[in-house]
Amino acid sequence: MRRIPRAGCWASLQLATRHGVTIPDPQDTNIETAYNYHYDELGNLVHDAAAHIDAIDWTVAGKVKRVDHATGQGPDLEFAYGASGQRISKQVGGAVGDPGTYREHYIRDAQGNIMATYRLHANGAFRLQERPIYGSIRVGLYAAQVDLYPAGQIVP
């Protein structure tokens, strides 16, 4: 499978094989109508109609910065990264404090392994969500939630 640029979008082009797969005409103006993906000049996905994603913004380092969903089709997402390029937080929904939104923070060790995930909820509750369990590799996940600050104790 190879991608070919076409009018700001990318279309998949199946290469012919000895099994008789035919190649669509790359000059066909309707080639994008069968596909719901749009890509930027660098090959990053910026739109996915089937997943109701209106826009995806990327950082200069090639990491997803923001995902905007169509209205009523899912929460918008925003990601933050540390100096090492690893994700340090994820915002789900609008601003913290809006109903149904939350922000997750990832705590890592010196090697970059996630040691804990914390979640700040819209109602002000701050909770330890999960802790990975490591041996020589990650072997499991302890997902018992621990309320550090109950709802209303802190202001987001």
Question: What key attributes describe this structure?
Answer:
mainly beta
How would you describe this structure to a colleague?
- The chain is mainly beta.
- The chain has a domain at 75-156.
- The protein has no helices and 13 strands.
- It has strands spanning 2-6, 9-13, 37-39, 45-48, 53-58, 64-69, 77-81, 87-92, 102-108, 114-121, 126-134, 138-142, 146-149.
- Strands 5, 6, 7, 8, 9, 10, 11, 12 and 13 form a nine-stranded antiparallel beta sheet that branches. Strands 1-2 form a two-stranded antiparallel ribbon.
- Residues 6-18 have low confidence and may be disordered.
Which radius of gyration do the C-alpha atoms yield?
A: 21 Å
Proportion in β-strands: over 45%
The largest β sheet comes out as: 9 strands, antiparallel
Q: In terms of structural class, how would the helical and strand content be classed? A: mainly beta
Shape: globular
Name the helix and strand elements from N-terminus to C-terminus, one letter apiece. EEEEEEEEEEEEE
**Integer average pLDDT:** 80
By DSSP (H or I, 4+ residues per run), the number of helices equals 0
Helix percentage: under 10%
Distance between the termini: 47 Å
- Regions with little confidence, pLDDT below 50 for 5+ residues: 6-18
The number of E-state strands comes to 13
Summarize the topology.
Layout: E1 2-6, E2 9-13, E3 37-39, E4 45-48, E5 53-58, E6 64-69, E7 77-81, E8 87-92, E9 102-108, E10 114-121, E11 126-134, E12 138-142, E13 146-149
Antiparallel strand pairs: 1-2, 3-4, 5-6, 6-7, 7-8, 8-9, 9-10, 10-11, 11-12, 11-13
